[in-house]
Amino acid sequence: MFNLIEVEDTIGIVPKDFGKPLKQVALEELRSLYEGKIVEGLGYVIMVTDVEVDPMGILLPRDGSTYHRVKAKLLTFQPRVQEVGEGEVVEITEFGAFIRVGPLDALLHISQIIDDYITYDERHSILTGKKTGKRLEVGDDVRFRVVAVSLTHGTVGKVGVTTRQPYLGKLEWIKESLEKLKPAEEKAKAVAGEG
Predict the structure, then answer these.
(1) Is the dihedral of CA 98, 101, 104, 106 positive or negative?
(2) What does DSSP say about strands 104-109 and 157-162: parallel, antiparallel, or unpaired?
(3) Domain membership flag for residue 129
(4) Which residue from 151, 9, 176 is spatially nearest to 81, judged by alpha carbons?
(5) What is the pTM of this model?
(6) Is the pLDDT assigned to residue 192 strictly greater than 90?
């Protein structure tokens, strides 16, 4: 999900910044161009971590700025379909839950939570399974699988996740499932030892 990527670009330095350290000005310019934005092929750019600037710039006619080639290292977030991750529930709505996935909020649609009919308690912001009684609330930690990613150029991105598969869901649910398996495993070991 998280990557450190090196990119090459050209930036303009305006005349008012000519007296400042070149690396500092380049870093500020790159941060304004990249940070907090979705760049196609890179994903969501969290921050510019480092920059190398060619000290020799070029001038263009009728333009007071100098233009310099730069190599920058970017910390990016690029979720991939089928990837498994963990995050915190940050919002509950009538159609599902939003889970913090890196710098983005992913939608866990109500149909993708568990194999049960789910009711929404608007007053307390809780989703509850009718048969199982399993509850999902703000602040719960969940393990999920990414099922859809749509990161378009700009600042808007959508990530869809599911918890309807084995060993996915609220971490407490996973722990309970594993505890239920222990007696069956112990019984199988005892039977195998007797034979």
Answers:
(1) negative
(2) parallel
(3) yes
(4) 151
(5) 0.76
(6) no
